[in-house]
Specification:
196 residues; alpha+beta; Nonspecific Lipid-transfer Protein, Chain A; 2 domains; 4-stranded mixed sheet; Maleylpyruvate isomerase family mycothiol-dependent enzyme; DinB/YfiT-like; isomerase; isomerase activity; Maleyloyr_isom
Length: 196
């Protein structure tokens, strides 16, 4: 791998993702419906370098090929807003974490257990994401639980309970339910509301 532990989380995750893209090639599946690794790499380049992008722009980027796209990603994100201290991990670290898992899980690779820094950013982001999810299932509440005993409540008690490692909770809350190793329990009505 091309990463070092001295790099910020978002930069390490970016480089690790590029290594995986290079290993798998342009036609490997992802959890993003209808997208291959080439589509996902083009999306990441466009996201960082264009304020608005369209399908024609995605097609143009994809035509450059995966090696060109990974080279551009390896070069790093523009300074504003992607590398602003304090925001870089929330904005870009989370994006690269989720898309890295999109590729890993779609290709049968196990969850990473050697990166506690990923759990830290995933827990922070999952807690923010859960606010929106909890609003959607009102009047039911939502509780997040980790194996380490961390909990966070949203709304009334006795609702849906989502349990898993922070990365798994983040994947579940970001729409990757089938791939997330998380358990949903609690009030049947709340569970049904969350699953809809």
């Amino acid at each position: 791998m091309s990463t070092t532990r001295e790099l910020p989380l978002d930069a390490r995750e970016r480089l690790d993702l590029c290594d995986l893209l290079d290993d798998l090639g342009p036609d490997a599946p992802t959890l993003c419906e209808g997208w291959t690794t080439l589509d996902l790499a083009a999306h990441l380049v466009l996201r960082e370098h264009f304020s608005k992008w369209t399908e024609p722009k995605l097609t143009v980027e994809k035509a450059k090929g995966l090696p060109a796209l990974t080279a551009r990603l390896r070069a790093g994100a523009p300074l504003i807003p992607w590398r602003i201290p304090g925001l870089r991990n929330l904005l870009n670290g989370t994006e690269y974490l989720i898309h890295h898992e999109d590729i890993r899980r779609a290709n049968g690779l196990a969850p990473r257990t050697d990166r506690p820094d990923l759990d830290k950013i995933a827990w922070a982001t999952a807690r923010l994401t859960a606010w929106g999810t909890a609003r959607k299932i009102r009047p039911h509440g939502l509780e997040l639980r980790t194996p380490a005993g961390e909990t966070r409540h949203y709304g009334p008690a006795g609702g849906a309970v989502l349990t898993g490692a922070p990365v798994e909770l983040l994947l579940y809350l970001s729409g990757r339910r089938e791939a997330a190793l998380a358990e949903l329990t609690g009030d049947p009505e709340a569970v049904t509301a969350l699953d809809d």
